[in-house]
């Protein structure tokens, strides 16, 4: 049986940057060593390591990010406003809180360093 991996959970509102971040993290580690599982997929995993990251963006910051993505053409601002729930920390884990000041490179670097540190 192979060595147990590290589960990385990236949370946030629609349009906050979860998928973009996950793709960049996967590219950093390489496709053979990192799998991206969408939030709509139920994953049951046993791992000794789990790291949690959550985007904390205002609605305006979320709308700006969403406007620059291909999905903006098919998901209008009004829908994004309905979906927005604000900051919702999980009460049972410590999460790294990612705000609008973090660049994509800084987020990916942090996740990469954290995963390497728990290996």
What does this molecule look like?
The chain has 119 residues and is an alpha/beta fold. It has four helices and three strands. The protein has helices spanning 18-29, 59-67, 77-83, 104-118, and strands spanning 6-11, 49-55, 95-98. It has a three-stranded parallel β-sheet with strand order 1-2-3, with helices on one face. Mean pLDDT is 84; it is low at 40-46.
What is the compact description of this entry?
The protein is 36% helix and 14% strand. The protein is of the alpha/beta class and 119 residues long. β1, α1 (18-29) and β2 (49-55) form a beta-alpha-beta unit.
Topology:
Elements: E1 6-11, H1 18-29, E2 49-55, H2 59-67, H3 77-83, E3 95-98, H4 104-118
Tell me the number of helical segments per DSSP (H or I, 4 or more residues long).
4
Secondary-structure-derived class: alpha/beta
What's the Cα radius of gyration? 15 Å
Biggest β-sheet description: 3 strands, parallel
| Mass-distribution shape | globular
What is the helical fraction, as a range of percent? Answer: 25-40%
Please list the strands of the largest sheet in the order they lie side by side. 1-2-3
First-residue to last-residue Cα separation = 16 Å
SSE topology string: EHEHHEH
The residue ranges in which pLDDT falls below 50 over 5 or more consecutive positions are 40-46
* Strand percentage: 5-15%
Beta strand count: 3
The averaged pLDDT comes out at 84
What features would you highlight for this structure?
14% strand; 119 residues; alpha/beta; three-stranded parallel sheet
